[in-house]
Each structure stands twice: as C-alpha cells, then as structure tokens.
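Records of this kind hold a single protein each, on a pair of labelled lines. With that in mind, the following record should read easily:
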Amino acid sequence: ATTKTAKEIFEEVMANPARRRFGYGQRLAVVNVDIQKAYTSGEFVTSYMTDPNQVDYVNQVSNSARSRGLPVVWTHVAYMEDASDAGIWGTRTNTPDSLQNIKFGSRRAEFDDRLHIDRTRDAVYTKKMPSCFHETPLQSLLVWHQVDTVVLTGGSTSGCVRASAVDALSRGYRTIVPIECVADKHESYHYANLTDLVLKYADVVPVQEVLAHLEGLPAA
C-alpha cells in the first residue's frame, strides 16, 4: 500500500528513469487530439483543464512543426443525430452531456477558438472512438509523409491520448507526449496515466524539450 498521490508517483518515476527513451526518429508529425469546446471551453460540464497554458503550448508546437514542413493533424469527435456512429460506446448514458450527444454542427463539436489551425495545410479528422487512428485516414497520411515519430497533444490523458499512444506504438511509431499539452478531468487520472505511458508506450517529456527539438530542425 502507498499513501503517495498519483502526481508524487509520476514525479518519482520521471526523476528515476528505469527505461531508455524511444527518442525522436527522422521525421515527426504533431497530432492534436480533441481540443474542442466540449472539453476545453469551460462552458460545459465535460470541460477540464490541467495546465492553464495548454492551448498556447499546443499552438507553439504545431506552429513550429508546420514552419518546418512537418504534418500537423487535428482530430475532434462528433456524431450523427441518432448516434448510431458512436456504437456501443454511446449506450451507457444519454444526457445532454453524453459523448454521443456531441452532434455534427453543435458548439460542443467545434474546435477551441484559441487554436491556430491552418485549414489549407493541416489535416482535420473527425473520429468516433478513443484512438485517433481508428477508422481515420491518419495512418495513410503518416505513411505518405514518411513519419516515424508522433507527438501527441490534447485530451483526455486517460482516454483518447492514451488510446492514441498505444495505437501509435503498436503501429511502430516513436511516440512523444509533452506533459503540459495534455489534460484530464482530475489530476489523479492525468498523472496515473502519464506514469503508465512513460513506463510502457511513450516518451513523456516537458513541452520545452519538444520545442527545443523542433527549433533544431531546418525551416521548410
């Protein structure tokens, strides 16, 4: 038994790395997961925030990658009126705040207004399930761009970010999670899952480290 908090355990693991890093490969993509008003605007009960500067950091990482000719991807969730495209995932609750009730064209489905999305260059995908790889064109895009490293941002850490990280690793990608760029409903979920990610599936690093790596790459 332990009396340590999830955050304390995470900090211990980060201070005493037991595994070597995956590191960066030859070419990266930034994949920003579900940074949409249902989760980041603060106006819905489904909203959450961990680092108050999350969106600013996501913009910095995305802008830097784009300026170097690297792919930037944005995903969001949205569903049909009858929610049949949510499948079994949309059957556990049915309130105005339920996942499957994030409808196409609704405010909850809209991207956060603070995001710097380049609609002419960035890829924008609607997804239905936790992983950003599930039934989206993401894999084909990454193959076309000869990407071997995926930088994941967004939320939630315990849900769609974790699922996307597991899928990225399973497909052979080096996976990087900038700490300040992901968020969850409670710090316990957030830090417990960051611990799991860094021990198994991804390099979990400060966002300044990712920005420094990008700054070392040639401009497009």
The helical segments are 6-15, 37-40, 54-67, 138-144, 157-170, 187-200, 207-215.
